[in-house]
Q: What sequence folds into this?
């Protein structure tokens, strides 16, 4: 064989043996499926609720970790999401607003630092896709409830793709407040009920379309070589409590329990609570909820029924995503996070809604499954939403760009928790609260007394009685810890 033919053959053989052109990052870094659920308190089977039907989230929990004491930093949607996305505690009153991402990210000049942890992943080789409500605006675009859809993003630099299907509702906000006939709270001038159980399939409401879009996107992402971050935001169980009838039919309304404590806590000023304005804003509500008198047991059960039906509807949509992840062979190398942006009072403390510094408003569902993680974990340590940023960076092998207010809880996933600091801070209603393993201490910066509230969760898990006056020595001991969370917000 001529010499030049031998050389040519060697070149062909070497080319054939050469591995596909993937970087080390592309081969080894895990994908991330991050699922945001609006107003999801820890009311799931995996949290011990024997009534609720949440088979898909319960299945996920068996292959991952359930955090039983996860707390949002602010009990309102936009501010909670800003804190989670940036890993930072609020430092001014504007950071307690639903407009926090718009004010402090979208309307600010671009800096050298990442605007969110999603942006940071994007800067480090991840392909990022957002579907639904990840920040505050329903589809991630900046426009008012009654306005036409805008092209301005709430997170301008975070997404390679930002997707949403408003279907018959035409805009994201209409879909968010939508009813099965295509109308919405805005179009009907709030002359609507806060619930609906239409006899429709999953595409009768917006979250069905979000799941459909996310499933199709997972099929596309399975063909890419880069690691991906897919954020999917589901609306329910946010008001209005609208879900297909088949999910309502999972429950017997008469057999549902009402709130274990539906009275005003002792030694608490009404300024710490509120008159359920969000619920009462649905003008055709069966009964008005007020602090002066609880709603009837019948209506309390109906609202709980509606809330549970919405959770079951969302659980079914999440199941579609998890099934597709398995079908595409990506489950083993994908971090899955399910995060509730805050809790919700279902008549607890006589409140229907969030917007308080009580346990019910700040504590939310949080489930994590990461590659190589021990299965079926129940993690009881107190963690915060600001801990998510550094945790995901560690799990993804991405260096932190800057110091956040959170800490990585990867050691908890690996059963190494000797130095974990159990303190979660919350901010709202002119107050700061800290939740520790056993206690909640809250300080309000207001004229109304008392300004200090203290609850012992060992003996009073439903926060029925402020015992600050009875235990001043414990309050004094905890006050320095509370002060550590004072960012100057109310100065």
A:
């Amino acid at each position: 064989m001529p010499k030049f033919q031998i050389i040519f053959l060697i070149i062909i053989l070497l080319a054939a043996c050469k591995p596909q052109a993937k970087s080390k990052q592309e081969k080894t870094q895990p994908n991330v499926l991050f699922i945001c659920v609006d107003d999801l308190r820890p009311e799931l089977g995996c949290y011990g609720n024997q009534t609720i039907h949440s088979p898909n989230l319960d299945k996920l929990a068996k292959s991952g970790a359930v955090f039983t004491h996860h707390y949002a930093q602010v009990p309102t949607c936009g501010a909670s999401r800003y804190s989670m996305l940036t890993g930072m505690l609020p430092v001014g009153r504007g950071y307690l607003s639903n407009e926090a991402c718009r004010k402090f990210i979208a309307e600010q000049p671009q800096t050298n630092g990442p605007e969110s942890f999603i942006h940071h992943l994007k800067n480090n080789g991840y392909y990022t896709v957002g579907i639904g409500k990840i920040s505050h605006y329903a589809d991630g675009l900046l426009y008012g409830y009654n306005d036409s859809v805008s092209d301005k993003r709430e997170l301008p630099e975070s997404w390679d793709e930002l997707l949403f299907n408003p279907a018959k509702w035409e805009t994201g906000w209409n879909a968010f407040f939508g009813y099965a006939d295509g109308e919405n709270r805005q179009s009907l001038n709030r002359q609507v009920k806060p619930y609906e159980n239409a006899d429709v399939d999953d595409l009768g409401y917006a979250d069905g379309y979000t799941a459909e879009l996310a499933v199709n996107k997972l099929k596309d992402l399975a063909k890419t070589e880069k690691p991906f971050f897919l954020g999917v935001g589901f609306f329910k169980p946010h008001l209005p409590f609208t879900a297909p009838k088949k999910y309502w039919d999972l429950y017997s309304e008469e057999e549902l329990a009402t709130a274990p404590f539906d009275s005003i806590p002792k030694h608490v000023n009404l300024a710490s609570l509120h008159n359920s304005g969000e619920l009462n804003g649905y003008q055709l509500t069966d009964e008005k909820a007020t602090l002066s008198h609880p709603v009837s047991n019948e209506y309390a059960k109906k609202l709980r029924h509606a809330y549970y039906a919405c959770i079951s509807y969302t659980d079914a949509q999440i199941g579609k995503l998890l099934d597709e992840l398995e079908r595409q062979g990506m489950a083993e190398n994908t971090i899955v996070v399910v995060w509730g942006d805050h809790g919700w009072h279902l008549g607890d403390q006589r409140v229907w809604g969030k917007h308080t510094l009580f346990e019910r408003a700040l504590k939310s569902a949080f489930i994590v499954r990461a590659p190589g993680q021990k299965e079926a974990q129940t993690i009881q340590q107190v963690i915060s939403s600001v801990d998510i940023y550094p945790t995901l960076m560690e799990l993804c092998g991405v260096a932190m760009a800057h110091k956040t207010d959170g800490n990585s809880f990867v050691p908890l996933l690996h059963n190494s928790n000797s130095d974990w600091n159990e303190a979660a801070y919350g901010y709202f209603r002119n107050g700061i609260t800290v939740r520790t393993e056993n206690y909640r201490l809250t300080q309000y910066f207001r004229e109304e007394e008392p300004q200090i509230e203290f609850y012992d969760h060992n003996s009073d898990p439903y926060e029925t009685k402020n015992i600050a006056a009875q235990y001043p020595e414990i309050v004094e001991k905890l006050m320095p810890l509370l002060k550590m969370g004072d960012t100057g917000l109310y100065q």
Observations:
- The first strand starts at residue 31 and ends at 37.
